[in-house]
Each structure stands twice: as C-alpha cells, then as structure tokens.
C-alpha cells in the first residue's frame, strides 16, 4: 500500500546512481529486504550525510509508491558500527555477511530473527574485530541456512539416519552421510564435521577456530546446500 513507511533497517549495499543519488538495498525486521533511492545524497549539503553507507543500522523513513523502489525521506542512525570500518578483516567479514544475507533472504517476507542475527554479527565485529575471519563467516552462513529452513543435517546420516560411520557430505541429501549412503557425496572428515556442528550450535562470539582446509570443506558444504535446497548462489569465502 502506497504511503509513508517507518522501519529499522541495516544497509546491505549502497550504489551510486545518476549524478547525486544512491540506490540502497536494506534489510528490515518486518519488511525483509527492500530497495530504495536516496535522492541527492551525494551532494555535499545532503541532510543524510554519510549514514546511508553499508552496515549502518538506521531508523528509516521511506515513501512507498507504485514501483518496487521506495524513496528515502528520513534517516536516523541507531549504530554506525564505526570500529569495524577501521579493521580490514572485520570490514571484509561484514561485507560478506551482508552479501550472504541478501542472497538467502531476497524477499519482502518478515524475518525479525534474521535482522537480529545480522545486528548481532555487526555488533560483535565492531566490538571485537579480531573475531572477523572465514570461520566467523561460515558460522554466520550456517545460522542463515538454519533460519531459512535448510540447515545441513549434521547429527546423523541425512539419507538413512545412521549415527555412526559418517564419512561424507551430500548436498542432495542435505547433510552428512554414512558409508552405505556416500554415493554422490564428497569426503568430510571428523575435524570438519566437529567444526560445523560447533559453529552451528554455538553463539557467533564462540565460533571455533579452524585451519584453511577445514574452512574450505565446511564452506563447500554450506554453499552447495544453499544451491541445492534454496536455489541460492553464495559467493565462495575466498
């Protein structure tokens, strides 16, 4: 319905448009992912200043017209997450987290728990930039898949339910598989399995550390699960 819209939002992406405008992709708790144009925001006297940049948490005022593109009419900063912007690793993790969320939840459906997850991730990276890294992003993506309803099955074989002899990961089956069901899977060792289980079950602040091999296997499991069960193409971590 056309008219004014007030919502809290996190800026996922901000792109230059025309001579002075920006197109924003934002994520909101009750309207999901939205797109909006901020007119004249790149002019030096713009009332919005720099608060429409990625990762800003805002109270937004929008006008909803007939098109899918809303118009930004007001913005108040809730949190700028300024500290993470001064740390390259934290900044990279924030950018990849926002990109992943925008791909998995690319609709206007309400998911307040996903909005809270994103705010929590940005807050952690702001307060503890050292948490930034590939392990953090894998853990964040696993929690996104859980919220979307297609987190990988890690407790038992996704094909037959067997709890022992888990030797591989099958994106088609949706999780780890045993020796009897491993056809079409790729090898997933105990160390990677433990890392994924801990990353999915622990708070982001307690994301376990892992070496590059484990992270690569875990990321493959996540990205191929997202592609097979959510038709979502996530970018490789590195």
UniProtKB/TrEMBL annotation:
Keywords: DNA damage, DNA recombination, DNA repair. The keyword DNA damage applies. Residues 4-81 form the DNA replication/recombination mediator RecO N-terminal domain. One of its GO terms (biological process) is DNA recombination. SUPFAM superfamilies: ArfGap/RecO-like zinc finger, Nucleic acid-binding proteins. GO terms for cellular component: bacterial nucleoid. InterPro entries: ARFGAP/RecO, DNA_rep/recomb_RecO_N, NA-bd_OB-fold, RecO, RecO_C. The keyword DNA repair applies. Signal peptide: none annotated. HAMAP family: RecO (MF_00201). Belongs to the RecO family. This is DNA repair protein RecO. It comes from freshwater metagenome. The lineage of its organism: unclassified sequences, metagenomes, ecological metagenomes.
